[in-house]
Specification:
- The protein is of the alpha/beta class.
- The chain folds into 3 domains: 12-69 and 78-326, TIM Barrel, CATH 3.20.20; 339-567, Rossmann fold; 584-701, Immunoglobulins (Immunoglobulin-like, Sandwich), CATH 2.60.40.10.
- The protein is built from 18 helices and 28 strands.
- The strands form 7 sheets. The chain has a 6-stranded mixed beta sheet. Strands 10-17-16-13-11-12 form a 6-stranded mixed beta sheet, with helices on both faces.
- Strand 7 and strand 8 (230-231) form a beta hairpin.
- Helix 5 (109-125) crosses helix 6, helix 13 (331-344) crosses helix 17 (514-522) and helix 15 (422-430) packs parallel to helix 16 (466-478).
- The longest helix has 19 residues, at 297-315.
- It is globular and about 85 Å long.
- Bound molecules: beta-D-glucopyranose.
- Residues 63, 84, 132, 178, 256-257, 389 line the site of beta-D-glucopyranose.
């Protein structure tokens, strides 16, 4: 049989001469499938990496090249060519953006779409046609080792940010949304059984997936864990009933790698379409089950059609002029990485240093200083986050110290002390005008859990290391002008030292350009605009139960700000909170109508004024609360956000559109969404903190 020569990463015979309608795509897929033998069809459904050699290759250089699945050389049908993320393209040497949690802190869907576009271009330029890095699992607890791979704790925000990444990536290649579902802990991920009510599943753990499916995501990756006793990769309820039937998803499901499915029949009947990255439970085993009548061939046809339809759809996507070596880590992408890092850094605290009537410590005016002490081992670390499957290998990483050196003139003396010897660091700080401490985590403290050899995993502690907390205390006692820049993948508890320093920044893992971005913020080249995508609590006791070794765990309606609100626990830094070098004032909240029907929408307007001296960008949030609901509901929930640029003294009116279906709860008796009539409270403001919010009310009638 003649084999068709295929160019890696390109679509060959699938590329149509003119764009195809959805109907034509389906017809073409059916036509191609009709030319396949059963073995060829089943071959579409699993990874092409050889089990033993592939495992060795993965240990040596994970995802250096795209991982193919379902290539058919007889018919000339290219395989899926998998590349991972999410902080960039894992293959070869690609641009390393800030981690997803940092990008969540930008609350900037346009920016995230541009990141997606850059990732799509770099992946396709290096031979991939599939991006496995749209991770939108909900941050239920900050100890989760892979917190950094997701956008935050709120389903609405996760959905909007994930959808933006899907839009950007899918201009070029297929995007895969993962890990479906409830994959919010790490060490126990292969075995833990998440016990969850249908209501919590639908309201808290799934809406963001639906949002990305509605955006047109081509693929979904199942999770390793179980939900209510069943592995996600086998779950008919998740994969068939909800995803494919109820939501009308017409793309395909891939398994998480290796242990994503355990049994041939359970997986194929549950709704799994591709086993990744090897052929283990599918392939010959699946062929046998079909031949002996235990698996209905219609299930195979359904999976193959799903895969072929997406291949044909994406064969007509792209901007060929943009692909090539020149596009990978190009200047535009490096610039974008710096912009994203700048916009992701959150200014948590900024007060005057000492008792005099100085302005807040930040931004630092280089004209007023002659000596800076930079302290902490992380100031010189190329610290871009986890070293598991999401690890990107950029050609360089700008450390915080390099970034600080880069913005200052040579007449300013910069001293560096790694902070191991607390006395010597404090002494050095005492002789400087300002001390900057860089402290936090690395991939040793949090990340993907790899059992053999053991690495990464859920965090052991939520505060900084005891040594760093002591260092901060001592340095601040010698120099009241001390700034702490924290590095990490999610919330950090700061109670032991928060009051001892005037200024704190949360810089997450800021990517290859992170050092530059940190310096841009510290020295006021850029006005901070990031806001927390997860609550920073005062105490671990305010968080939901977490056990990294759990065999079974209960997930409910409450975590993050929803849980703190319910129990009236004040956070150290609230969800949605972040300061700026300028100030914003909110006024005149109003609605276009005060009553709407159950299928209607309302416009909520508010004026924002920049009342400070710097141009700045403000993230405004819309929350909804429920007045006398018939079922238990959270105090408030995020339902909208928007970002506005304002020059000093400027006022702008911003508008949110809220549809009544956004007010629905999932009714466990009717097994459907219900919008209750009655009174709703609408809150608009700069964070989730009650004192920050303006309130108005809306009535829903029938
Ligand atoms: C991770 C996935 C990842 C896959 C392939 C798995 O271990 O859980 O998130 O996409 O590896 O790299």
């Amino acid at each position: 049989m003649k084999k068709v020569k295929m160019v890696p990463g390109e679509w060959g015979i699938l590329k149509p001469s003119k764009p195809l309608s959805k109907r034509r795509i389906d017809e073409k897929a059916r036509d191609l499938m009709s030319q396949m033998s059963l073995a060829e069809k089943i071959h579409q459904m699993s990874g092409d990496i050889p089990l033993v050699l592939g495992t060795i290759e993965m240990q040596l250089a994970y995802n250096r090249r795209p991982y193919p699945a379902g290539e058919n050389t007889r018919l000339g049908i290219p395989g899926i060519r998998f590349s991972d993320g999410p902080r960039g393209v894992v293959m070869y040497n690609s641009t390393c953006f800030p981690v997803t949690m940092a990008r969540g802190a930008t609350w900037d869907t346009d920016l995230e779409e541009r990141v997606g576009d850059a990732i799509g271009v770099e992946a396709r330029s290096q031979g991939a046609n599939f991006f496995g890095g749209v991770c939108i699992n909900l941050l239920r607890h900050p100890a989760w080792g892979r917190a950094q791979e997701t956008y935050g704790e709120d389903p609405f925000q996760l959905g909007e940010m994930g959808a933006a990444l899907v839009r950007g990536v899918q201009r070029h290649i297929m995007a895969c949304v993962k890990h479906f579902a409830t994959n919010s802990m790490e060490n126990a991920r292969f075995k833990v059984d998440v016990r969850i009510s249908e209501r919590a599943l639908r309201e808290i753990y799934l809406p963001h997936f639906k949002r990305c499916i509605d955006e047109g995501a081509a693929s979904v990756m199942s999770a390793y864990n179980k939900v209510n006793g069943e592995y996600c990769g086998h779950s008919r309820h998740l994969l068939r009933d909800i995803l494919k039937n109820e939501w009308g998803f017409d793309g395909f499901v891939i398994s998480d790698f290796l242990l994503g499915i355990r049994k041939t029949i359970d997986a194929v009947e549950g709704g799994m379409d591709i086993e990744m990255p090897f052929t283990w439970h599918f392939g010959k085993k699946l062929y046998k089950q079909v031949k002996c009548g235990r698996v209905n061939e219609a299930l195979i046809d359904d999976a193959v059609l799903r895969i072929l339809r997406q291949k044909i759809r994406f064969a007509q996507t792209g901007e060929p002029d943009r692909y090539g070596k020149h596009a990978v880590v190009c200047d535009a992408h490096k610039k974008l990485a710096r912009e994203v890092a700048q916009k992701s850094i959150v200014l948590l605290k900024n007060e005057q240093a000492g008792k005099n009537r100085n302005p807040p410590l930040l931004p630092i005016d280089p004209l007023k200083i002659s000596k800076i002490a930079v302290i902490g081992r992380l100031a010189i670390a190329k610290n871009i986050g986890d070293s598991g499957s999401s690890m990107v290998r950029p050609p360089y990483v700008v450390t915080p110290l390099e970034g600080i050196r880069g913005v200052l003139e040579s007449n300013i003396k910069i001293t560096y002390n790694n902070g191991k010897n607390i006395q010597s660091a404090a002494k050095q700080a005492g002789t400087a005008d300002i001390a900057i401490i860089i402290a936090g985590y690395t991939h040793r403290h949090e990340g993907e859990y790899i059992p053999i050899p053991p690495k990464g995993g859920d965090r052991e502690f939520l505060s900084l290391r005891a040594h760093d907390e002591k260092l901060i205390g001592q340095v601040a006692s010698k120099n009241p002008k001390t700034v702490v820049v924290m590095i990490g993948g999610s919330a950090i508890i700061t109670e032991n030292w928060r009051r001892k320093v005037p200024s704190i920044l949360m810089a997450w893992y800021p990517g290859m350009e992170g050092g530059h971005a940190i310096a841009d913020i510290l020295f006021g080249k850029v006005n901070p605009s990031g806001k927390l995508p997860c609550v920073f609590p005062k105490s671990e006791k305010h968080l939901p139960f977490f056990d990294k070794k759990a065999k079974s765990i209960e997930y409910g309606l409450y975590h993050g700000y929803r849980l703190l609100d319910r129990n009236d626990h004040k956070p150290a830094f609230p969800f949605g909170f972040g300061l700026s070098y300028t100030t914003f004032e909110y006024a005149n909240i109003g609605l276009d109508k005060s009553e709407i029907g159950v299928d209607d929408e309302v416009r909520i307007r508010v004026d924002i004024t920049n009342t400070g001296n710097y141009t700045g960008e403000e993230v405004t949030q819309l929350y909804v609360g429920y007045e006398n609901p018939s079922v238990e509901r959270p105090v408030k929930e995020l339902k909208g956000f928007t970002k506005t640029w304002l020059n000093p003294a400027d006022t702008k009116q911003i508008e949110f559109v809220l549809t009544s279906d956004q007010l629905a709860y999932y009714c466990k008796d009717r097994l459907s969404w219900v919008v209750e009539q009655g009174l709703y409270r609408l809150f608009v403001g700069p964070s989730s903190r009650p004192e920050d919010l303006l309130e108005t009310q809306l009535r829903i009638t029938d």
